[in-house]
Design brief:
Elements lengths: L2 E6 L2 E7 L5 E7 L2 H11 L9
Antiparallel strand pairs: 1-2, 2-3
C-alpha cells in the first residue's frame, strides 16, 4: 500500500514500506493534495477528483 509522508518542510513524498520497514519513495510533491491524489491512484482509486 502506498502512503505519503512529509519528508521535509514543503515536500510530500509518496512511497511504500516493505515488511522489514524499508522506505521506497515513488514521487515527490510540493502540495499535500497532489501527494494524496497520487497515493489514491496508486492504491487503485477509480476517481481521485470530487464532483
Amino acid at each position: 500500500m502506498y502512503v505519503y509522508i512529509c519528508s521535509e518542510p514543503g515536500l510530500w513524498t509518496v512511497g511504500f514500506y516493505t515488511p522489514d520497514g524499508t522506505w521506497h519513495p515513488e514521487s515527490d510533491h510540493a502540495a499535500r493534495q497532489d501527494a494524496a491524489a497520487r497515493v489514491a491512484w496508486l492504491n487503485g482509486a477509480r476517481n481521485t477528483t470530487e464532483s
